[in-house]
Design brief:
alpha+beta, about 90 residues, Surface presentation of antigens (SPOA), 4-stranded antiparallel sheet
Length: about 90
């Protein structure tokens, strides 16, 4: 099916934008889970203490840029390094 002029220009415009800003870097971080703790609880931490969270061990990880979740994934091992296999993107 042939593309319309609009579709061609939109695709071209996206490529132009990517070519211009594609070299800009952004820090991506992975959020496993969060928990609030009192200052007393934090002060009582010592090696060997296990902190539990409400999240299940099978819960997807959140890939974030700033406060915005951009994707979800699962932890993987890549050789001797920790990685995240991207499972899907958020809207």
């Amino acid at each position: 099916m042939p593309t319309t002029d609009y579709e061609s220009s939109t695709s071209l415009d996206k490529q132009v934008v990517l070519n211009r800003v594609g070299v800009v870097s952004a820090e991506v971080h992975v959020e496993l889970c969060r928990r609030s703790m009192s200052v007393l609880e934090i002060a009582q931490l010592k090696p060997g203490v296990v902190i539990t969270f409400d999240s299940s061990i099978t819960t997807s990880l959140k890939l974030k840029i700033g406060d915005r979740t951009i994707a979800t994934g699962v932890p993987v091992r890549q050789d001797s390094q920790l990685g995240v296999a991207v499972m899907g993107f958020t809207d």
